């Protein structure tokens, strides 16, 4: 690939942005797989989302929601 980039220097930005896109998508998938809505261990913790506090911030960025002031609205399971 190094020799190909030397022969065609106009492809260097394309290689850079392809690498950037693939790495960004991979990091996002890793972030999604570690979230509270994914159950990797069905025997010990089949419903991990039920053990979260009502103040847990689910979103990456919450613009208007103050999660500290929320009260629990559902029953305990």
UniProtKB/TrEMBL annotation:
The keyword Transmembrane helix applies. The chain crosses the membrane at residues 12-30. InterPro entries: B12D. Keywords: Membrane, Transmembrane, Transmembrane helix. This is NADH dehydrogenase [ubiquinone] 1 alpha subcomplex subunit 4-like 2.
